[in-house]
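Protocol step 6 of 9: fold each sequence in the batch and record its structure tokens directly after the sequence line. For illustration, a two-sequence batch is reproduced in full.

Sequence one:
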Amino acid sequence: MKIGVLVVAYNAEQHLAQTLDRIPTDFIDQITAVHVCDDASQDDTYEVGVTYGDSGSANAATLPLAITRRPVNLGYGGNQKAGYRWAIESGLDIVVMLHGDGQYAPEFLPEIVQPLLRGEADAVFGSRMMEPGQALDGGMPRYKYYGNRILTTYQNALAGTDFTEWHSGYRAYSVAAMANIPFADNSDGFDFDTEIIVQLVESGARIAELPIPTYYGDEICHVNGIKYGWDVTKLVTRYRMHKMGFGSGELTFASQPYEIKASVDSSHGRLLSWMSHRPPSRVLDLGCSDGALGQRLRSLGHYVTGVDVERATGVEDRLDVFVQHDLDTGLPDSIAKQYDVVLCADVIEHVRDPAALLSAARNRIGPDGSLLASVPNFGHWYPRTRVGLGLFDYDRRGILDATHVRFFTRRSFEQLIARSGLTVARRDATGLPLEVADRGSDQPHDCSDGVADQPRVSGKLGVVRAVDRSLVKLRPQLFGYQFLYELVPGAPPSS
């Protein structure tokens, strides 16, 4: 495998040559390239790198060394971005980040790449915290040590990880894993390293840790500790909020299947409850996503045909029939003409012409059949407050989901129902999705009833849920998070 060493350097003239000297001589023949990236240093870092080959040291003649001087300072993160692009464009398999000031031990290069070479990990982080007391013995200032521990504990709790350290700059990456994450969108500052962790975790990458020694000498620290702590705290908090559905999710990936919301207080859970009381039926699931909802319907004895614009992995295995089709172009001719139930679970807000979709769906309802629909309520106090404060923006999930192209209140949706030749047979409303507090955690869901996940909200949140339920009943237009409808064909819309 092709191994590259990326040496990030800024004002490192006193330490760069020694750092290169410390690369194990017997490991050099495994290294394809060593790239020193001088980030527009104000000292002679670049000159030290250029003349290193003539220094007469043991590594000088054999190290596959290249030196680059940035014309302007890109920042710690910006320098890494350029370096990882180099690794990708050079066709490397592994890239190790090494600091030019020697704070991270080059002697451990053979060890840090081993999990990657064995195919056991996609990234390896050197940790100064794995061995108790080692960091302090190595000269780490106590305020940095305790700050590191506090931040790491907080970041683990919010990101659902169990790393011993989030703040080490000694890392080895699979180049393929790096190419799979949007690192170019990250900060140019020191919080870049935290963003990388978030992106790797979100992408499902395998991350290993390796204990490394701690060296603190006379190198100059360029990190503003207070600003850094604040930046990474905001970042991981924002990530957890994104996992819960709030915020645009700029550090995450938009291609994931639309998640089933199957708690007993959610839209999918309520629809599953309605369907559990029906005899085995032929169901047309419009906007079926990855088929998770249809799979639960099948477990209730229903025969499910799903339609979606994207073919999610495994969707054919979860449904009886799957048809890939864009609902913005109408319903496909290949599906049956009549169904006992047409299901539009959180899909109507995603199409450009919802009236056309509902009218087409009405024509597929068989005798004594119905259409079940759920839509988010734009009249809920949450989007009202956002708009009122001038903070209207999209979230990753929820009422303000970035993929929604239409918004409805109860009045506007029921007007749409009437125009589509349907009448309301039953309506309901859900409250706040308090189960989002568990998103991003590793706690399993309880679906022991075979229908809907049981809520695990307790304590103070349990009180909030009880109050919210009461408010939904009192005034659903303001406190209903989603509206649910059972619709039956009525008089055709007037021309």
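Sequence two, same batch, same settings:
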Amino acid sequence: MKNRFFTRRFVSARCLPQSRLCAKSSAEMGIKMEKDIVNIQGSDKLQTSIPGSVSALSAGELSETAKFYASLGISGLVHAYGEQIIESLKSRFAQIEQTAEYNQLKVIKAMQNAKVSEACLLGTTGYGYNDLGRDTLEEVYANIFHTEDALVRPQITCGTHALALALMSNLRPGDELLSPVGKPYDTLEEVIGIRPSKGSLAEYGIAYRQVDLLPDGGFDYANIEKALNEKTKLVTIQRSKGYQTRPTLSVEKIGELISFIKNIKPDVICMVDNCYGEFVEKTEPSDVGADMVVGSLIKNPGGGLAPTGGYIAGKKECIENAASRLTSPGLAKEVGASLGILSSFYQGLFLAPTVTAGALKGAVFAANCYERLGFAVIPDGKEERHDIIQAVTFGTPEGVVAFCKGIQAAAPVDSFVTPEPWDMPGYDCQVIMAAGAFVSGSSIELSADGPMKPPYAVYFQGGLTWFHAKFGILKSIQQLLDDNVISPDRLKIV
């Protein structure tokens, strides 16, 4: 669910070309499935061969689309299963569109208030002095997040870098960092020094403690209060679940936690790792008391167009500290050339609410598909959404691998390669990642990954369009069938 090395969790996967035999088999399978679809076009109803698998669907409405899906390797059984589930999700999708509309207007208003002009799209070189587009973009982000200031730079390389920058610039030797939501994402362990690493906070004499969530996913307020002390300088709150099976935190819940902490220690800095959550709700953590919100531009806010970058939005002092750490004391925000990529930043941000909505639909669709196949999913098919991540627990490595193979095969880029589990920097076990993306490692694009260790859960996210997310999920189900991880008789509505 999170890419922390090169955008936090979506480093490009180690992929090996499929054998000619495998490619041929897939092609033959696609031809056979297409013929199967064609053979049933004469009937008024499209039926699967599995009794009770799905309700009858109109062949006239689905024939052309179904034939195209068949040519892409999706059987009539899988396609019909997906269409039946989509039919049940119309009201959910309408709610997602309403939120997207609200957030689209919010972005437009923020851009208009900042007086974005054509000149803002140009960029600078060298030192980057007087970069109008860069400075205006940071004003836009501050407007969107309702913060005093923002730092939005291509020099911030990924989500992990943005978080490390926010932490290291606002903590000093002798300070203490507290996580009241349990263990942070894997790659942050080395930033903090939970796992020893060069340049970690621990090496600079910054202590760390955490309070785990309660078994039901709630906050352990009693122990949080005990953990807060005179040395606690900064509290880090991770919105998404990372490689854990805990719930994602809603903006409302984050606000309640921040209020509790501030009532005990008003001067503590509350930072929220906002990765994967931007534009999912109508409000952001900065609207409910967060002093800093941090994220990656090759996730939600980049809209799939940003080629790199990260952001920190928050209180002016916090942002000044971060800028001085990113560049140098005395220079801070005044330098840092934008190098001609500002148009991608602006246009990506403009598209972000719509792109996020498509990814969100894909997550809801995935939850319902896999829940009805009998797998544990977090969030479940009916829960409200607070990020774009969908976790599916398979219980076996074969399930994780098959799912990622299906997602990779559905990609517009590198669809012909096979992802493999691999030793990844920043992780304590092998990780498999599928992400055939236009931007390397982009997890707003169709992607999936998971650690190869119990409970063998995979984390799915993204899709620049809803239709691509839909295709990816159908392809993953097809791959599970092809690899005999599931049997055809499981494709039924319970």
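Proceed to step 7 once all outputs are recorded. Observation for sequence two: The two ends are 28 Å apart (CA to CA).
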